[in-house]
């Protein structure tokens, strides 16, 4: 794996900042004149000689705020760091924040505002699939670019979206392979909230379990979003005694699900559980004691031991407080501005079409990502490692497995549809 | 003839002036003053105004509080969305699917053919009829079930709210048939006419605005009829109307159906202008928001609620753009201010202060026609029922 050493990383940054301070405005103007506005912006985006405006579009209010706040903070942190190190093509990034208010029409309205009124050069945002689906036609019609941070169901590949989280197969297949091998699992119980992401994930999981792993699915259950009564499902689990519970329960239901499981005496001493939907953020609500010993499959955990991640965690805590936690999506959101910077610099332009063009080359990469090295696939998703974390009482996970290689993103998996 | 029109459809001279000002605002001033993006937003707000106008009939005059108007808004919106989605899902543009020619979300949910209840929505005529008939039918069934059994007041409000919850759960749960929580998205053309273009947005805005004015006039016609007076009488003393030999429940069912249809028209226009429909528009929260629009605008005023809807939504958009993290507090403050200082809403402010300005008193008599009965009545009743309002507010 290619990591910058932390010292080297910090050294580089401080040198740059030093140079910036010494040269003052001259350095920026020199850099900006190297890239005249007329050349880097041929489509009328909000780019001036010394600034470029981007949008951040997340729910700051409503039920999704608790999840999306971390992502939004990470994006602001990345932008701040980029600005401190000289900006993009000599331009400082200005941010316009909009609140999607956990409401899909509002997301569409705000996306329209950012693209039509503010002419932002890029948008970082959205969390739920529903919000992405709502803004997608807006981005396609007005040719904007959206960096979308959440792990999601796949089945989508838009020219106007860069997906920085994992699509379903990246997360699921490696996770199932691991439990089958490590725990010798034969029987699986699938449970999820009832919407597109868990349904698609479980469809992929079932095919993989039955046709590749030679295992058996002994139950597949869905609960409406927000439902908090898991008693009958827990009884069914007891009856069928699966080797593994494979879970994708989200939001408030997640808290009830793990607490009731624990109250029913099902814990890591007597049951293996692998979940797709618990990150450090969710553990805050669920409580580490209810999760202790269960596993999550993600591409990132806060406890990852590498210099990039140490620097990232330190910077994040310095910005947002010692108690803040960083989950998978927060890290993926942090990658957005950096990936955009890499694409803009490679294209030498802010024009959306040129960014899309270089993104399609498969050569946009980041050495400095907290999750390690990542590369953008021509299908607009990221090559990434998949990791399995075992939850501890303190709400942090110990990484017990890491895929040996970067896993290729495959939003339209043949044979799994 | 002209007089009849002014009296019955516009609500007399004063009403005609008020509706004229509103028409001037939404047909001339907004399109001239706002860019297309903002105008499209106003168009979206005005679709909610349909629901608010429906609530003036139902709640303001009928005294029946429905916390489920979002259901009808949603029915209209979904009917339109189904038609548009089918048109957007032609076999060519869905060629990558397992089953080309069906909506994308059905393909993701392993459906291999179009469900039967989607099939009729391939016809535009059927869709238009469905937008008007489905909500009316649904409201009729609810109405018969409740009003014939003399269920009213708080119980009716709670039951309508529960219906909103049930419908949301149903739509979210049956995602293969309905698009689930994502809703029906990515709508493109209406009979081959691209609704996403700038010119289409202008045209849809004006259609929407004219429809709203038409709905207000029709509502005014209903309220200035004998039926309108009976409605008020029912609200004030239901038993007296019943003992006078009227079948109260039929009146209630009628007004409930009418307000449902009006909401549904708003919903269909919403889908056309915003380009998608989702369950978040027909649940409890939007339904209550519609009641708030009516309350802020003044629930006895067909025109006032349009301003109420506009004020709240401009506030929502404006505050949330300026203070992305704090805007909900400002909205809360706005509601509290309205309830505390202007219990009759914007229309109450108008009646209390603006219409009594001295200069109006001086210049108006020359052109003053006899005041229309409806207006005197509504003014009288709204001031008389202030104490009632307070009592009702405390109850709910």
Automatic annotation (TrEMBL), chain A:
Cited InterPro entries: ABC_urea-bd_UrtA (IPR017777), Leu_Ile_Val-bd (IPR000709), Peripla_BP_I (IPR028082), TAT_signal (IPR006311)
GO terms for biological process, alphabetical: amino acid transport
Keyword set, alphabetical order: Signal
One Pfam family cited in the UniProt record for this chain: Peripla_BP_5
Keyword Signal: yes
Transmembrane spans: none
Signal sequence, start to end: 1-32
Protein origin, superkingdom: Bacteria
PANTHER family recorded: ALIPHATIC AMIDASE EXPRESSION-REGULATING PROTEIN, PTHR47628
Protein name: Urea ABC transporter, substrate binding protein UrtA
Lineage: Bacteria, Pseudomonadati, Pseudomonadota, Gammaproteobacteria, Thiotrichales
